[in-house]
Structures are given as structure tokens and as C-alpha cells.
Predict the structure.
Amino acid sequence: MKIAMIGTGYVGLVSGACFSEFGTNVVCVDRDASKIERLLKGEIPIFEPGLDQLVANNVKAGRLSFTGDLKAAVKGADAIFIAVGTPSRRGDGHADLSYVHGAAREIAAALSGYAVIVTKSTVPVGTGREVARIVAETRPDLKLGKDFDVVSNPEFLREGAAISDFMRPDRVVIGAETEQARAVMRRLYRPLFLIETPILFTSIETAELTKYAGNAFLAAKITFINEIADLCEKVGADVHDVAKGIGLDGRIGRKFLHPGPGYGGSCFPKDTLALVRTAQQAGAPVRIIETVVEVNDARKRKMADKVIDLCGGDVRGRTIAVLGLTFKPNTDDMRESPALEIVPALQAAGAAIRAYDPEGMDEARKLLPDVVWCDTAYETLGGAEALVIVTEWNEFRGLDLKRVKSLLRQPVVADLRNIWNPEEMAALGFRYASVGRPRKTH
């Protein structure tokens, strides 16, 4: 089989590389000539564990290639995936579908034989129908169901674990409405059939909504445990024990019950907002998710207040060390990271910021001005009067806490990811605050 992957961003590049690992001939296309040039040189424009080797192996095997020529990539393809960005539209929060619509027009112009056009990008309900309309409008000679089909095949990839998520997914959701289209998708996902992965065939609209509903539910779960964490701090309970106590209930499950400074990244913020707008437009508002969006936005700002309170209510003229800037570990993605709210708020309160992140600093430099950037975690601590943990990179968990204390001018730590033990921190003489756990003193 041959497929064309339109877009070499996170979803397109990971999906293309993984499909090629399945033995499929994959051509990845991007209009950004500099990105294609980098990929042709073997440079990976994003950080995802294992992706560099996966790409290199399949390029070497001749199954994976990169080009800026969409027409050549589409020629002879059994399936053409649209994996372009769908950011939140400025002003109203709806998903910006201009890239999807543009790709549909270019694909239509290039089609020379039957192919399945697959939306891999996260798109609102109704997008698949609109893609079909655009193709028919661009090429009146092409008939839906005969010369092309449109399929929705949403991705469920976690940054930092995307390759394993693609290779061993919980499920694959495919919105397809002709047997010919379903047959193409079955062939493409045959390696997953062989390991008995659940493959769910639905209507196009159902597949599109499933993606948004799934992300909205997980975002709600995160927001729920964050609010429970706030309550735990007020009443002296431990949120981790609460999370374990409810997570062992099979109806609830243990995942996504980790308190912190709020969710971020490329998916949850924009997808929850897009679902809210779609639901409002359809006359069926999702009030729970509206609240989730509101609470999560406010939480990131509240984390700066938590740090300031720990510092005695005033950080003017103080230097604060920040460890972790990306929205989660094992990625270089800064999109909607809590750090983008916390750092400016601390600066506005008069603090000077020293910061370090293992992978995210190149992007962070563009987004966070007036920060002193450091090369190691320990360098960041030198002379600082407080430490804030924003992202739970594993290397931070293993820091020598006695050395941490010796480097800080004041032993003050705001651990927004709960990576350290309150009893141990208190025994070492830290003034330590975490999320949803009682403070310990010695």
C-alpha cells in the first residue's frame, strides 16, 4: 500500500513513521520547504522519544520519504491523510479549519485515481462532509463513493508516548461509510487486527465527536482531581490517597487523577474549547466542559499566587528558580503550558526568574522574555530564594536534595507536581508546599 501524509507536524510525522514501520510506503508532504529540507537531512523538528530512530530506519528501508510536491505524493496513493494543524481560531474559540480546507482543495486537484481522503487532524463534527463538498466543488468530475471517499480517523497519541500509543493503541476509531473505504482502512491497519486491537467502525460524525468527547472527559477528570486537591489542602486530607481510593473503583480508573497546575498542550485546551463552541452552535451546550475550561484557565494563574504565598506574600526583588517549562515531560511542546502563565505572573509581582528545561528551552526563549536561562537544574538554583517545580521531568526527581538546599539562598520549594515527599522535605528543613497534601513541619 501507499499513503500520502499531508502535514509533518506532530501527528503527521509520528503517524507517517509508524505506518511505514507497518510496512506501508509513506510519503510525507509539507509546504514548509525548510522543514522538508531538515527531514531530508535526517533532522527531526520535534522531540518525541524514539522518533528519530524510527524515521531513520524506515527512510533507510525505502518505506518513508519526504517531499514538498503534493501532486507527486498523491499519485497512486490508496489513502491520503490530512494531518495539518487545527488551532483555536482567534476571537471565538472555534477550530481553525483553513489548513484542512486548503489541503482538501490541493488533494482534489491532484487526484488521478480512487483514493480515500482521511482526516487525521482533530476536527469538529461536520468537517468530513465539508471536505467531501470541497473536493466535489474543486473537481466536479469526481464522484463521492466512486472516485474518492472521505474517512475520519482521529488520532489518540500522547506526547512523550506517541509511538507506543500508535503501535499498541487501546482502540482505532474509523468513520467510513462505504465498503470500499472500510476495506482500504482494514488493509492499512491490518497489523493491529493481528494483535486483536479493537477497531471501531462508525459514521463520520460519530468518529469526529468521539475524539472531542474523549479529550473533554480526560480534561474533566484532571480538573476534578485538581479541585479535590484544593479541598484536601483546606481540610488536611491527602489527595494522592483520595485519588487511589477512588481510582481503584473500576468505574473510575486510576489514570488522569494526578493533581497539578492544570492541563496544557496541543490537544486538551483547544479541543475542550472547540467542543464547547460546537455544542453551543448546535443548541446543546456542554455545561460541564464549559466549567472545566474556566476552572483550568484560572488554576494556572492561581499557581503563581501559591508560590507568592509560600514566599511570605511578597516576591519583589527576589530570584525564583523554575524547573520545567514544557506542558509535560518527554516533549519540547510549550503550547498552553502552565509555565506560560506562572512565569509572567511571578515577573509581574516583581520576581526575577532563572529557568531550565531539558528539552523546551529553545521554544521557551521565544515565549518568555527577561528570563535567565540555565544549562542545568543545579545551575538554576544558584542564588535563588525559592524553587518552583512546574514540569515533572524524571531528572528532577533524582536531584540531591541536600545540594538543592545548599544552593538556594532560602530553603523554599513550591512543588506543583508532587515529585518529592513532604516528610522528607520537612526533615531536611525545607519550607515545602505541594498540591493537595498537608504541609509537614519539623
Observations:
- The first strand starts at residue 2 and ends at 6.
